[in-house]
């Protein structure tokens, strides 16, 4: 599966952005999807994950209550709605896919930069 992330940009603190990740491949609906981010000088961290049905989600404590992950399997797209953004949310955001039965996220998009100004 190939992934294409988009939607990043510059936003003021307190603002909102929605990231999108378009996937190719007929089996997208069976993949677990996740959003990760990497800030300058920091390790990559998991932000949010969603099951293939969309009924199970995970959020990092740092974004819980502010970010929402969702997916539209008919459009082969996963979204990350980000509200109440903070300067510490500044990072390159990556979407990733994990095939059924696999342990790791093996498929990665190219990343989209989110910059939150104070």
Write up what this structure looks like.
This protein is an all-beta fold and 118 residues long. The protein is 0% helix and 50% strand. It has strands spanning 3-6, 9-12, 17-23, 32-38, 45-50, 57-59, 67-72, 77-82, 91-98, 107-108, 112-117. A hairpin with a 6-residue loop joins strand 5 (45-50) and strand 6 (57-59). It starts with a strand and ends with a strand. The mean pLDDT is 95.
Number of helices, counting only DSSP H or I runs of 4 residues or more: 0
Instruction: Categorize the overall geometry.
Output: globular
Question: Sheet bearing the most strands, described?
Answer: 7 strands, mixed
First-residue to last-residue Cα separation: 37 Å
Q: Please give the number of β-strands.
A: 11
Average pLDDT: 95
Strand proportion:
over 45%
Element pattern in H and E:
EEEEEEEEEEE
Instruction: Work out the oligomeric state of the chains in this entry.
Output: single chain
In helices, the fraction of residues equals under 10%
Q: Uncertain regions: pLDDT < 50 for 5+ in a row?
A: none
Instruction: Indicate the structural class.
Output: mainly beta
Return Rg in Å: 13 Å
SSE topology sketch:
Elements: E1 3-6, E2 9-12, E3 17-23, E4 32-38, E5 45-50, E6 57-59, E7 67-72, E8 77-82, E9 91-98, E10 107-108, E11 112-117
Parallel strand pairs: 2-11
Antiparallel strand pairs: 1-3, 3-8, 4-5, 4-9, 5-6, 7-8, 9-10, 9-11
